[in-house]
Design goal:
The chain is an alpha+beta fold. The chain has one domain. The chain is built from 4 helices and 11 strands; from the N terminus they run αββββββαβββααββ.
């Protein structure tokens, strides 16, 4: 009986999680506009709030010449900051703000993970070695400020344009599009925690 209940519970929790996605226009450093498919997978929250759990992962998918279709999945609840093409390479960057993420990415002391794509694989590099002209270009609108049905459940976002991102409601903790990655990483309100050598995320003073 206990085994049956366990199976039913797992099935229920799996059913409660959900993935939502949208198309997003992304302005590259070159001035080009890239069409990106963005998917967010949410964990289950409570029994009476199915599908309203925290973000478990965010995936970015785009057809980028000459690489073809390229994707990257950010594990955890931190929003990716950018997807760009600079110096003949692709770049993705995102903050890490919990102990598990710090450990997963080798405890980057700046608490920002930078990945570069070459040879059909992603490789992590330090923020110090990333191009200085990388800028935030992905939508940072907190999910609670996105259109919803009044209960917190988000309404479909079929297409997020550059104009919509410029006019979107972001909180003070969200870095605006166009901000330098190096500037954003140095501000406590954008990267509220720092990884330490021991893998513990410590909160910065605001």
């Amino acid at each position: 009986m206990k085994a049956i209940l366990t199976v039913l519970l797992l099935a229920f929790l799996s059913a409660c999680s959900r993935t939502e996605g949208w198309k997003e226009d992304v302005l590259l450093s070159s001035g080009e506009t890239l069409a990106v498919e963005r998917r967010e997978t949410h964990k289950p929250d409570a029994f009476f709030q199915p599908g309203l759990g925290p973000i478990a992962a965010t995936e970015l998918v785009a057809d980028i010449p000459p690489y073809g279709v390229v994707s990257y999945k950010v594990e955890g609840g931190d929003y990716p900051l950018l997807l760009d093409k600079v110096d003949g390479k692709l770049w993705v960057a995102f903050p890490v703000s919990d102990e598990a993420s710090c450990e997963r990415y080798g405890n980057p002391l700046e608490s920002v993970v930078v990945m570069t794509y070459a040879g059909k694989k992603w490789t992590q590099v330090s923020l110090a070695l990333s191009p200085p002209d990388l800028r935030v270009n992905l939508d940072q609108t907190d999910r609670w400020f996105r259109p919803n049905d009044g209960t917190g459940r988000q309404l479909p976002r079929p297409h997020v344009t550059l104009e919509a991102k410029r006019a979107s409601h972001i909180s003070i903790s969200d870095p605006p599009n166009g901000m330098s990655l190096h500037d954003a990483s140095g501000l406590a309100r954008y990267v509220p925690r720092r990884c330490t050598a021991g893998g513990v995320a410590q909160r910065l003073e605001r």
